[in-house]
Design brief:
Length: about 120
């Protein structure tokens, strides 16, 4: 299956379990992979035969910014559901990273990955 990827999209948000995480924006990083047959777009060279990247990023950003989620899992589920309902895609894989998660130990990032439909 063909894929469209949006990699390392950085969006400010106030998601987290703790109240202090909801008080200030922190930067989250997202990778989104949409599975869709792209041969039609390849043959037609027509935007209507594929997923408009700009529109997809705007949709992801809107879902991301509309509500403060406690869990990255819930946020990812909302984004996956919206993408699958808005675009003719067969599958979506989303990774959401929280590089500044409130963890004392040293780490690069925490990440949740969802695959829908499974």
């Amino acid at each position: 299956m063909d894929k469209i990827r949006i990699l390392n999209l950085k969006i400010p948000g106030r998601h987290g379990v703790y109240d202090f995480e909801k008080d200030h924006d922190q930067i989250f990083e997202l990778d989104v992979e949409m599975h869709k047959q792209l041969s039609g777009a390849g043959e037609s060279d027509n935007l209507e035969d594929t997923v408009n990247y700009d529109d997809a990023v705007a949709l992801i950003t809107t879902v991301f910014s509309t509500k403060c989620y406690s869990l990255l899992e819930a946020l990812g589920e909302a984004i996956c559901s919206k993408l699958l309902s808005e675009y003719p895609i067969e599958k979506v894989i989303i990774k959401i990273r929280k590089p500044n998660a409130p963890i004392i130990e040293k780490f690069d990032t925490v990440e949740v990955e969802l695959v829908r439909p499974v």
